[in-house]
Structures are given as C-alpha cells and as structure tokens.
Specification:
By secondary structure, the chain is α/β, with parallel strands linked by helices.
C-alpha cells in the first residue's frame, strides 16, 4: 500500500525523471513526502512562473518532459506563464497542480480553480485525477501526449485528499522508444521538389533537435549547396559557421534575408510552423497567396494545412527526414548554389557590428563572447530589444546551446540559465537580460544561490522597456508613456546573494569583468550601463523618433 504522493513519484521514476522544479504548497504535501527519499532532485524555486520556465528549459535541453509541481490557485496562475512558453515553443512539459479536496468542489473553496477550463486552450491536455489507483494511468498518458506529434505541455490537477489516500496499484512501464525512420516516398517528394526549384530555402524547426540532427542537416545542406535559414530563436539547430547557414528569420532579421524569403520559389519547412515572426507578420509570404511552393514536414498532422497549403504535406519527425536527406545524393546541377553563396556573404556582412552610441556597446560585448566562449556554451535570454544583438552577432555552434522563448516571454532567461547550469554544470551558461526583462524573475537568483549555480547574467541596462519604447516612438513619437524604469544596483544585488557583481561603464572593461565572473565560480551579474540612445541594433532612439514623426506627417 502506498499513498498517492508516493505512487506519483514512483511513476515519475519509472519515466526516467531525475529532477523536478517546484514551489511547495500544502495542497501536495503527499507528493513532497514521496520525493524525500526518491533520488529525484527537487529544485525549490521562488515563484511558480520561474519554476515552470525552469521545467520548460529542461524539456528543451533533454528532449524529455520537464516536470513542475505547484500549488493550487495563485500557484497555478503564476505557473501558466511557463505553460504558455511550452505551448508556443513546442516543448514537452508536465505541470502538476495541487487541488482542493474532492468533496469541496464547486463551493468556491479556498483557492479553487477549474484547471480543465483554465488550461484547456493552453495545454495539450488538462485533466484532474479523481482516483488514487489511476495515478499511473494518467501519468503514463501525460508523458505520451507531451512527447507525441507536436510536443507540448500537459497539466494534471491533484486533489489533496486523493494524494493522501493509500491503495495497492502496479506501476506502468514508460513509453517505448519511438521507431525512427521516414517513408522513402516522402524523402523522394522532398528531393524532387528541391531539384525542380531555382531559389529554395530550407527552414529547420521544432524544439527537440540533438547534435546528431544538426550535423545531419549540415551534411545535407552543404552536400546540396542549399541555404538554411533558422526560425526565430532556433539558431542552434545548425552550426552558424557552415557555408550553408544564411541567418535567422524572425524579429530583427536581415532585410536581405527577408527579401530572399519573399523571392523564394520553394520553402522546405522541416518542423517549423512558419509563423508570423518568421514571415514578418505574413507579409514576406502570405498564406492567402499560391506562391511560394511550400513542402511542409511536421510531426502533427493537424498542423499541415492549418495555415499554409502544403505541396505536399508530410507527417514525419523532421529529425528523421533530415537524417534521410543527409544520405540522399545531390543532383548534378544545382542552380541555387550561387544564391547560397550570396546569402552567406550577406549574413557575414550582417553580423559585422553596426556601432551604437555610448561608451558601452552591446554589439561589442556579444562579439567578444562569440570569439571567446566554448562552442558548447549555453546562451539564454528572455525578451527585449537587447536580444536582437544576440540573434544578430552571436554564433551558435552546437544544438541545444540557445535557450530562448519563441513566445517572446520576458523573464525567461534567468530561470532557463539556472535550469541549464544544474543540468550541465561543466558548461558555461550565460544569460542575456534587459533591465526590465530580468526583474520579471529576479528572485530566482536566490534559487541559483541555494543550489550553487554559477550562471553569468549580463544585464543590458538602458533604464527602460526598450522594445515598447521603440514601438512607442514609431507610432506615437515623442509621447513617452509607461516605459521608463527605476532600477536597483544589479551588481550589488548579486553580491547580496553571495555572488559576483560588476558594473561596466566603459566597454573596454567588459572582457576583464567576464573573466572575473567566470573565475568567481558563483552566480554573477555584469551590468552594462548602456547609452539611452542605443535602442536597436541599427537605429538610435532619435532616429526612430524621427522616422515616426515622418510617418505620422505623411498623408
């Protein structure tokens, strides 16, 4: 006989779970008891949003569902931010939520929420376990669904009295390893489409790529002399130093690469949903128009034809397709080869720094790190204009070294960095954050301190919500409202947590500050004091305002 909390933890162990992220609550005390002697590490976080983002990052890193446990009501609503990231980013994740006792339902009990309704449109599946004996069944289904088709989050609610009850129930085995492979006819359809094209683009997507998948993509692309363009924040899917890599399609993309997408006669999507960020709001290619031809490979059959008319649509894991394409002999004539070389040259020119105002230049800091970090260093970030500098100037060399939210969630970078450093302690983990972005989850510095996590946080401090200010100046130039920030002394805050802190007011001091942060072996914050004029990678605040004024004056 085991109580429900023990049955739950044993089910997690059966599925290979080594670590969970949680904020404790009285609604799942039995699960906390089950974790005590389980061998599963319980990383206790400071806020449920941070815990859920850590679990989501773990899903990206491992390819297995990241696990998060939170309490009912406010705990679940806080955690929903991480569930949204997992849904948008196609990341396997399971959120367990403590729930009120079954006998108190529908009375407006303390912290009562209907989680099926709350998460119904956000998770792949949201359910509540009413019977202790069915815990293994529900957990097994959760793991299957989180990994199947398009991966994503699953939410299971756990009534506290259900967890504390005892019963005798067998454990269930974990899901069997999937059978790898793709139909020869599907591979032939892709190769024939490429062979008949003049201006093809290859777009690899999805969340679960391993290094072997990136290497296969590189062999295929270089063997066929094809240009590869990464979707928004999927840049580590392929070595950025490959002669076939042409840059990323997304926020802050190279204008020339955007024009190449507009002019393409074939787009081969290998797992990407080809969303609005990739297509600049569907203006570079339009779902309502017949061109370009789109060959769409996606593991979820419901995604095919959802937005784009695929010609053809192929239900397959993009990693399996890439492995098969890497073995396909290239055609004798490759009319697109010259375009590939031109796009690569454009990319090389695009990542040459455009100088921004001020004594500290974010582009120089990113370029220095690009030249000095090991290829397996992991870069994380949340959302803000600062991230465009990372997208444009950093070079990702290995799969899984970019942890960033395609959902555009602020506050993601620090929790993701903590999760990554716990999982990969021997690798350097650098979090890029804006001053507003970091303060969304700043309290997770305490989690880093508790677990001895030596993440290095680089704060781009310009005293404002820069992205919103940029849009403000474009649409309401000169009318500043709600975008200025008062900030703490970030370096002093790091020292208060027992870590290393440095303030960089002259860019020449950044390399030494970074070396000291590495040598400290603790959590570290390097605060970059940026000139308020430095708004984007290529426009100052004054230039952005002038463009807005000009646009508003036009008839």
């Amino acid at each position: 006989m085991r109580h429900g909390g023990q049955i739950l933890v044993d089910a997690l162990k059966a599925n290979g779970v080594e670590r969970v992220f949680s904020v404790p609550g009285e609604s799942f005390l039995a699960a906390l008891d089950g974790l005590l002697d389980s061998g599963i590490q319980n990383v206790v976080c400071r806020q449920e949003g941070g815990a859920a983002m850590m679990a989501e990052a773990a899903g990206k890193l491992t390819g297995r569902p990241g696990i998060c446990l939170v309490t009912r009501g406010p705990g679940a609503t806080n955690a929903s931010a991480g569930v949204h990231v997992a849904r948008q980013d196609s990341t396997p994740m399971i959120l367990f939520v403590g729930q009120i006792a079954r006998g108190d339902r529908d009375r407006g009990a303390f912290q009562e929420v209907d989680y099926r309704q709350m998460f119904g449109g956000l998770a792949k599946w949201a359910a509540e376990i009413d019977d202790t004996a069915r815990i293994p069944e529900y957990v097994s289904r959760a793991f299957h669904l989180a990994m199947s088709g398009r991966p994503g989050p699953v939410v299971l609610a756990l009534p506290e009295d259900m967890l504390s009850e005892t019963c005798d129930v067998p454990d269930l085995p974990p899901p069997a390893p999937r059978i790898r492979g793709v139909a020869p006819a599907a591979v032939e359809a892709v190769t024939e489409a490429i062979a008949s094209a003049q201006r093809p683009l290859i777009v690899p997507g999805g969340s679960l790529w391993a290094q072997e998948d990136g290497e296969a993509l590189r062999r295929f692309a270089e063997g066929w002399e094809l240009p590869v363009t990464a979707p928004f924040r999927r840049q580590s899917h392929m070595d950025n130093e490959s002669p076939s890599y042409a840059g990323d399609l997304g926020v802050g993309m190279s204008p020339k690469l955007g024009e190449a997408l507009r002019a393409a006669d074939l787009v081969v999507s290998l797992g990407s949903r080809l969303g609005d960020t990739l297509t600049h709001g569907y203006t570079l290619i339009d779902p309502a128009k017949p061109r370009p031809r789109i060959v769409h490979v996606h593991p979820d059959p419901d995604e095919l034809g959802h937005v784009w008319v695929p010609q053809p649509g192929i239900v397959a894991d993009p990693r399996d397709m890439v492995a098969a394409l890497a073995e396909a002999p290239p055609p004798a004539t490759r009319p697109w080869a010259a375009q590939t070389r031109a796009l690569r040259a454009d990319y090389e020119a695009w990542r040459m720094p455009t100088e921004t105002p001020g004594m500290v230049k974010l582009e120089r800091a990113v370029c220095w790190l690009r030249d000095h970090l090991a290829p397996d260093a992991i870069i994380t970030n949340g959302a803000g204009n600062f991230a465009a500098f990372v997208h444009r100037y950093h070079s990702f060399r290995r799969c899984g070294t970019q942890l960033a939210p395609t959902s555009g969630s602020m506050g993601y970078g620090l929790p993701a960095a903590v999760s990554a450093k716990i999982a990969r302690p021997s690798q350097t983990v650098v979090c890029f954050a804006g001053d507003g972005d970091l303060q969304m989850t700043l309290n997770e510095l305490s989690t880093a301190q508790q677990y001895g996590v030596a993440v290095i946080v680089i704060v781009a401090n310009n005293g404002r919500y820069g992205t919103i200010r940029m849009h403000q100046e474009k649409h309401y130039p000169g009318r500043v409202s709600g975008t200025d920030l008062a900030n703490p002394d970030f370096a002093a805050l790091a020292r208060a947590y027992g870590g290393f802190g440095a303030v960089v007011e002259n860019g020449d001091d950044f390399p030494e500050a970074f070396r000291q942060a590495e040598a400290a072996g603790t959590l570290a914050i390097i605060e970059l004091k940026l000139d308020p004029e430095a708004l984007t990678t290529n426009l100052t605040l004054t230039e952005t305002r002038a463009a807005g004024l000009k646009a508003s004056a036009s008839p």
